[in-house]
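FAQ: What does the model actually see?

It sees only this:
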Amino acid sequence: MEKLMDWLWSVVVEYGPKLLVAVIVLLVGLWLAKAVTRLVMKVLQKGKVDVTLHSFIRSTVYVALMILVVVTVCGTLGVNMTSIITVIGAAGAAIALALQDSLKNIASGILILVSHPFRVGDYVQTEGIGGTVTEIRLFYTTLTTVDNSRVVLPNSRLTGNNLTNYNAEETRRLDQNFSIGYQDDVALAKDTVLMLARKHPLAILEPEPTVQMVEHGDSAVVLQLRCWVKTGDYWQLKFELLEQVKAQFDRLGISIPYNQVDVHVVNQPEKTVK
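And it is asked to produce this:
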């Protein structure tokens, strides 16, 4: 019994100070980790960083600080730091290899949230898929198509492919073609389209709308209207001008031809067989 007490006392004398220091380092480290995390959150809020990114940054900072605290505590206890760092590195490499696709999506999600190639509410198109952005997450982005279907795209596909954002600018140019017959009055048709565009309340008059002949088609002369419009009014102006131009052309007797083929049948006299 006396030998056991002596051994315990020797352990306390040898490791007690180190253990006490390790406990103090652990408590201080935990306090500092929480304090630094709160400070980072305040900086993010003042910097107007996207809210979706807050939780990810907070978790990443806190985990990194906790790993630093654990390593420091182990060093205080006299544990071989090289072994610990090697184990952590090996574990990190294995995790990164297993989750490489997920990590790629996370990196792409951070890139989207930081650089803002598009925002919630923008209409975008990529890989032949078009829709309004309804949600941006670290792993994926959700689009809602015009027929109210939900499309979920991994973020890596959005950053790795060409993407068109139709709401990036406040205004867009509407390029709209109208076909008339070769026998129709081109000047009258151009003036009619231009007049309707200028009178429309959604059309922007500076720069001025223009109408030009752009093609001699197989069955029609093609006129093109170029008119600037606010991005949110693009489709309404397009549809309303289509209807108004058709009605006005009908009143003026201007035809809107469709593709047709004229077939000429030639009767030849039958050959007499001798």
